[in-house]
Sequence to fold (120 residues):
Amino acid sequence: MANKYEWYDNPIKDFFLQNLLNDVDISKKKNFEAIQENLTMFIEHFLDDENDIVYLDFSIKKDKFDGFKIIANNIITALWFSGIIPTDTNGVLKANKFAFDDKQYTFNKKTKVLTTKISK
Fold:
């Protein structure tokens, strides 16, 4: 089984992929800073409260095979990177879970993994 990448489905994923296609080492400090600045400007346009941008917290690690791992450090960033912009940022942070489109999202603070479960 295979998956086909769909452009324009999630602009944040498209942004990261475009950087990789342009052979940008997104783990280098100067490139990371530019990426963070661009994402900040982009995400701010979708926020009800622009001050919520302080929750944009992530890191990028390069692995031994020259691949990259983009790690969200909180549930808000993980949701943003998934293309979801919650309106009650503080409530989502406090509960560390979020329901949207018949799905329940939960963030594991230790492993930094966002899991999705279909709600019934």
